[in-house]
Amino acid sequence: MSFKNIFCQDRVINLFQKAITNNHLAHAYIFAGQEGIGKTLFSKELAKAIFCQHSGADACDTCSHCQRIANDHFPDLVFILPEKNSRTIKIEQLRYLQDVLHVKPMESKYKIAVIQSADKMNEESSNCLLKTLEEPPSYAIIILIVTSLESVRETVRSRCQIIRFSPLSMAVVKDILVDRFQLDTKQAEQLAYLSNGSIERAVLLSSSRALENKRWLVDRILTLEMNDNLSFSKELFDEWHIQDLEVLEEKRSQVKELILSFLLYYRDLLVCKTGEENLPIHFIDRKEALRSKSKSLSEDMLFHILKVIKTSLEQLDHNANINLLLENMITKILHLQFGRRITQATF
Ligand SMILES: [Zn+2]
Fold first, then answer.
1. Which terminal Cβ of the chain has fewer Cβ within 10 Å, N or C?
2. How is 17-67 classified by DSSP, letter by letter?
3. Ligand 1 centroid vs 68 CA: distance in angstroms?
């Protein structure tokens, strides 16, 4: 792999190739963009391009440095990831990073540290990171990978160069699923639509019950009635096996997938309503039903519903009671959709 295998990020690649050629790399970057579009993969390819023993602004993929980076075995490149079943980087991991950066590079003139989920740190961890960013060693390049730039503290943000990554196009996701994951074309196409430009989500969807869950959900929302409020929430928890999950983080990620499905469903209705033929319909195999449903809803109402769903998605990371969060979202949606006061569910 080299930059040639990074898709849809030409602007970012050009920027870094210029910086490498002109020796103008910054000490700290924030890579921002939705999950699963290749930010981590890019950081590895960038490290290869920087450390490659051959001259030029891309990796040769054959020298000892390139090969050892590909095998996660290069001493001047360190990745800091959240531990299993944790969403956040712990302070001990950042202290370890400080120690690592304190030691000069062993095989090159730079030392690169990539920190995953840097937008989900607590106060203590953020302060520790800030200290590192305030006085980085001259040879350090620190890359923070985030999905939400708004969640990064201003003091951290102001010390980094911000690089925004674009979602992948449907066609690219489909091709990657066929070429690298050997899915058949039809399945790859369907997953590409549902993944919203994220390879990670597409692969996740292909390897679990997720696709069936989503189809069930769409069919169920299409036939929802005003009085379904209470029973629908319970049905959701059962059908998506949310109650069966014991680890909170697993539960949270399942609820996130559920809320994203609501988002895609109502976005599809809006696309049908406005007749924007060039925008993709995610639930393509339910296109006719969505079209017909969209006739009974107003654009204004759909915008309001989408706002409710987006707010729930934002609150999910900070909310301990995810059952209640989901409950409230459904109640608000039904209230907007049916325009009358409906029974508030309780858990
Ligand atoms: Zn090389």
1. C
2. HHHHHTT---SEEEEE--TTSSHHHHHHHHHHHHH-SSSSSS--S-SHHHH
3. 10
Q: Taking the chain (347 residues) in consecutive chunks of 10 residues, what is each chunk's mean pLDDT?
A: 82 94 95 90 94 92 94 93 82 93 92 93 89 93 93 93 91 87 82 82 76 86 80 84 79 86 92 82 86 91 93 82 87 83 43
Q: Cα of 59 to ligand 1 centre, how many Å?
A: 5
Is residue 177 in some structural domain?
no
Domain residues for 320?
208-338
**What spacing in Å lies between the alpha carbon of 48 and ligand 1's midpoint?**
7
Final residue of a domain: which of 103, 135, 164?
164
Tell me if 185 is assigned to some domain.
Answer: no
CATH code: domain of residue 125: 3.40.50.300
Ligand 1 center to 98 CA (angstroms): 27
In a domain, 96, yes or no: yes
56 C-alpha vs ligand 1 centroid, how far in Å? Answer: 9
pLDDT at position 345 is: 42
Domain boundary among the residues 164, 197, 216 is at: 164
The model's pTM is: 0.74
Spacing, Cα 179 to ligand 1 middle (Å): 25
- The phi, psi pair for 55, rounded to 5°, reads -75, 165
* Helix H or strand E encompassing 231: helix 229-239
CA 49 to ligand 1 centroid distance, Å: 7
DSSP 3: G
Cβ atoms < 10 Å from Cβ of 184: 9
